[in-house]
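Hello Y.,

Per our agreement to keep a running log of every chain we model this quarter, I'm adding this entry. I've kept the format consistent with earlier entries: sequence first, then predicted structure.
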Amino acid sequence: MNQKLTTKQIALIAMGVALITVCSWISIPATVPFTLQTFAVCLVTAVFGLRMGIWAVLCYILLGAVGAPVFSGFKGGFGALLGTTGGYIIGFLFTALIVGTAVKKWGRNMPILILSMALGILLCYTFGTAWFMLVYAKNSGPIGIGTALGWCVIPYLIPDGAKIVLAALLTGRLYPIMKKGNLL
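Predicted structure for the entry above:
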């Protein structure tokens, strides 16, 4: 089944990439920067669906990989993906896959959105933290899982919970408008 993307879908994917990019620039520096990227990934995928959500995240990552300054701190380049936070960026694909699959199978009701977004971000945390530990160990020496969780996950739980709720609420408002306007 080789379905081509329509012009409208490509435009929406580009809008999704732009939203993820702008949300990555809204950043508070830390070991792993506080950004709105997870919010944008969840929102874009929940509203656009599995196929366009994955495309938006993949295009975002590829743009960053080739050097466009789309990542947190206006970073770009393959080196940014190979750094300590690169695993979280790759993990956005897992988040999009979980959220997109959930809305495709079970729809966009609030419990499904919140649960799928939480699971997607949990998978992103898992992959990103494992990556962080490997890269950090290579560059600075090994760290324990407790230290890694303290640096990379625990401080983000409450902010990411708020981002999940906001993304789910906005999906509930935006999806019907976009569907009615024949944008999706």
